[in-house]
C-alpha cells in the first residue's frame, strides 16, 4: 500500500514538473532538410543542369545506374520509405567513369518532390531550388 502511494506521488510530481516547465514532450519543429544548404539550378555545373533537365524529361540517361533507387544509408537526406529516392549521375569532364557528382531526387521520377546535389559522392548534399 505504501509502495503504491509512493509511486502515485512520484508520477504526480513528474507530471506537475513537466507541466510547469513545458519539457514533458516537445514536437520536433525542424528537420535536416530545413537546415540544409541550397543550390539553384543556375549554380549547378553545366552537366548538373543537363542532368536535371533529363530528369524532368524522363531520360534517356547516359548511365545504366541512373534512375535506380538511392538507399540514403548515410541518413543525410530526410528519412523516407525505400524507393522514394533515385540517383542520377552528373558527368565530370575528363573522367571515363561516373565520378562523384550526383543528383538524388525524391518522389515520382519525372516530377520529383525534391532534388539534391552532391559533388562528393553522398558525403554532403544541397537541396536544388529552381
Please count the helical segments. Answer: 2
Share in β-strands: 15-25%
- Give the CATH topology: Nuclear Transport Factor 2, Chain: A
Major beta sheet, strand line-up? 1-6-5-4-3-2
- Summarize the amount of helix as a percent range: 10-25%
- Beta strand count: 6
Mean pLDDT: 83
CATH superfamily: Microbial ribonucleases
Radius of gyration: 23 Å
Q: What's the helix-strand series?
A: HEHEEEEE
Q: What is the CATH C level class, in words?
A: Alpha Beta
Head-to-tail CA distance between termini: 66 Å
CATH architecture term: Roll
Largest sheet: 6 strands, mixed
Low-confidence stretches: 9-30
Question: Any idea how many domains?
Answer: 1
- Find the structural class using helix and strand composition: alpha+beta
Shape: globular
Please, could you describe this protein's structure?
There is one protein chain. This protein is an alpha+beta fold and 130 residues long. The chain has one domain: Microbial ribonucleases (Nuclear Transport Factor 2, Chain: A), CATH 3.10.450.30. The protein is 25% helix and 21% strand. The chain contains two helices and six strands. It has helices at residues 2-21, 46-57; strands spanning 38-40, 68-69, 85-89, 102-107, 112-118, 126-129. It has a six-stranded mixed β-sheet, with helices on one face. The longest helix has 20 residues, at 2-21.
Keywords:
single chain, globular, Nuclear Transport Factor 2, Chain: A, 130 residues
Write a brief structural summary.
This protein is α+β, with helices and mostly antiparallel strands. It has one domain: Nuclear Transport Factor 2, Chain: A, CATH 3.10.450. The chain has two helices and six strands.
